[in-house]
């Protein structure tokens, strides 16, 4: 099962230039959270701080009683065993085939026999739908397959926390939809805590249990999916609707003159779109952390946008019947298989 991550007052700068200040949030155990933000707001830096690759200027990152921000190297090494990380391009070793790439953490950090390693590696390769491709080199497969191989490697030590750094970058919308389904299925199977950094709005609207937004050197919002998708906060509305109107500009923040010109012209933010149903596991069972559609809105006396939570068979957010994924490899989701696919 996953573990909770509590971040309190985290601040990071480079050469005196602040990346973000006083970031505080809690990633609930076993849930999927998404971190959004304009380019250059420090999302990848945040992931590196979580796993201890970068030290924050101040603040705390608490995981099972350990403070990643201040603990010693020996303690940090033990806590890092809780993590699996999927890097943007998979970060595979180009001279190793997929099997050896996935086996690398087991050979490096455990004393398991090669028979044990083979059993584990093939299990993870099957989970991500790459059976039959394990002897290929990274240069011989598609970008989506490299990402899935990187995901298999991230899973091989059975981590309780998995970080995804823009897993959909460079993928077309269809492959992104397959990858999103795989992420939801793996969360159901492993029970791990997932944090996804992404720019894909459809992913942010349908996959997570929680959404956060970094903007202008601070955390603009973090909370349940429905809370963020109902937010009237201008920066949240602008980003989730991919609009030019609002406080975000080409170089992150618009100046006062630009905002005044928009106001004088009577230009307003677009209405909030309907909130889609949350993407469900391909076996048709509920997600471990699933809440009834509209529950947060009802509990907090918030009226969701018209048309919210209505089933749409053509939508990526529609639950997939259990029969649809019956022929797919375990954990792969319908349509995710080896070969030259995603």
Care to describe what's here?
The protein has a domain at 5-225: Rossmann fold (3-Layer(aba) Sandwich). The chain has 11 helices and 12 strands. It has helices spanning 43-50, 73-80, 98-109, 114-127, 143-155, 173-190, 201-206, 225-229, 234-241, 256-264, 295-299, and strands spanning 5-14, 17-27, 32-36, 58-63, 66-67, 83-86, 161-165, 193-197, 210-215, 218-224, 248-249, 252-253. The strands form 3 sheets. A 6-stranded mixed β-sheet has the order 6-7-8-3-9-10. The radius of gyration is 21 Å and the shape is globular. The model is unreliable at 316-340 (pLDDT under 50).
Give a topology summary.
Blueprint: E1 5-14, E2 17-27, E3 32-36, H1 43-50, E4 58-63, E5 66-67, H2 73-80, E6 83-86, H3 98-109, H4 114-127, H5 143-155, E7 161-165, H6 173-190, E8 193-197, H7 201-206, E9 210-215, E10 218-224, H8 225-229, H9 234-241, E11 248-249, E12 252-253, H10 256-264, H11 295-299
Parallel strand pairs: 3-8, 3-9, 6-7, 7-8
Antiparallel strand pairs: 1-2, 1-4, 4-5, 9-10, 11-12
Give a brief outline of the structure.
Helices cover 31% and strands 19% of the residues. The C terminus is likely disordered.
Structure characteristics:
about 350 residues, alpha/beta, Rossmann fold, four-stranded antiparallel β-sheet, 11 helices, about 20% strand, disordered C terminus
């Amino acid at each position: 099962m996953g573990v909770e991550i509590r971040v309190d007052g985290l601040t990071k700068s480079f050469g005196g230039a602040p990346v973000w200040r006083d970031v505080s949030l809690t990633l609930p155990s076993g849930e999927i959270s998404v971190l959004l933000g304009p380019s250059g707001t420090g999302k990848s830096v945040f992931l590196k701080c979580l796993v201890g690759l970068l030290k924050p200027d101040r603040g705390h990152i608490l995981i099972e009683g350990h403070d990643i921000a201040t603990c010693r190297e020996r303690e940090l090494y033990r806590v890092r065993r809780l993590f699996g990380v999927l890097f943007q391009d998979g970060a595979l070793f180009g001279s190793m085939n997929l099997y050896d790439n996935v086996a690398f953490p087991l050979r490096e950090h455990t004393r398991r026999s090669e028979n044990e390693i083979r059993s584990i590696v093939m299990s993870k390769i099957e989970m991500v739908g790459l059976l039959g491709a394990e002897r290929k080199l990274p240069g011989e497969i598609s970008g989506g397959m490299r990402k899935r191989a990187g995901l298999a490697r991230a899973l091989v030590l059975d981590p309780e926390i998995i970080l995804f750094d823009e897993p959909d970058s460079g993928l077309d919308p269809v492959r992104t939809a397959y990858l999103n389904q795989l992420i939801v299925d793996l969360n159901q199977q492993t029970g791990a805590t997932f944090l996804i950094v992404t720019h894909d709005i459809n992913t942010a609207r349908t996959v997570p249990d929680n959404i956060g937004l970094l903007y202008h050197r601070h955390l603009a919002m973090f909370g349940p999916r429905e809370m963020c998708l109902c937010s009237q906060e201008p920066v949240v509305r602008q980003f989730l609707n991919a609009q030019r109107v609002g406080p975000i500009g080409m170089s992150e923040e618009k100046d006062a003159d630009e905002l005044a010109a928009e106001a004088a012209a009577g230009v307003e933010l677009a209405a909030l779109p309907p909130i889609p149903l949350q993407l469900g596991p391909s076996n048709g069972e509920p997600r471990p952390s699933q809440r009834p559609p509209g529950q947060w809105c009802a509990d907090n006396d918030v009226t969701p946008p018209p048309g919210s939570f209505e089933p749409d068979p053509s939508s990526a957010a529609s639950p997939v019947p259990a029969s649809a994924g019956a022929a797919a490899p375990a954990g792969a989701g319908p349509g995710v298989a080896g070969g030259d696919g995603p």
